Q: What sequence folds into this?
């Protein structure tokens, strides 16, 4: 083959080549499929954390309310020093919390030692039937015996904190 023929063939092949065209720039960053999965998982995690936080908040709202009520009882007692009133209010608060957290039909008839035994069992303590909480039985007597009101309030506070 002659060189002229080879150059002619090469020239034909070169004529068939087209210019390289650079694609037009896209409108922005296009994330990969993995980024989409990570984004969806992140959004679902945030939603789940929000749902769990709300559920915890709703479940503990009666406990927070009872603790605030207990603080206001203590303030009222410190101002007025009425033992009878404090015992009545503590009993009512404990009974309301018990009726919210436990079977109402089983709680409402409890009185006296049975009430204190229930408080011990549900609060995982012995302070109501054998400790300072014994005085709660005297809530409806005309003149209750002297008791350590701060210790009693602390026992009630611990019982409330142990409730669901």
A:
């Amino acid at each position: 083959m002659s060189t002229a023929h080879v150059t002619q063939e090469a020239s034909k092949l070169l004529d068939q080549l087209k210019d390289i065209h650079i694609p037009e720039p896209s409108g922005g960053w296009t994330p990969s499929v993995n980024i989409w999965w990570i984004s969806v998982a992140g959004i679902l995690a945030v939603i789940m954390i929000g749902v769990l936080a709300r559920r915890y908040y709703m479940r503990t709202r009666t406990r927070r309310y009872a603790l605030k009520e207990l603080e206001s009882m203590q303030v009222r007692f410190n101002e007025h020093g009425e033992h009878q009133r404090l015992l009545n209010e503590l009993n009512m608060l404990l009974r309301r919390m018990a009726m919210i957290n436990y079977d109402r039909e089983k709680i409402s008839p409890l009185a006296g030692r049975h009430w204190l035994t229930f408080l011990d069992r549900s609060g995982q303590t012995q302070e109501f039937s054998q400790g300072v909480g014994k005085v709660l039985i005297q809530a409806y007597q005309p003149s209750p015996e002297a008791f350590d009101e701060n210790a009693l309030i602390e026992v009630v506070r611990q019982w409330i904190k142990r409730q669901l």
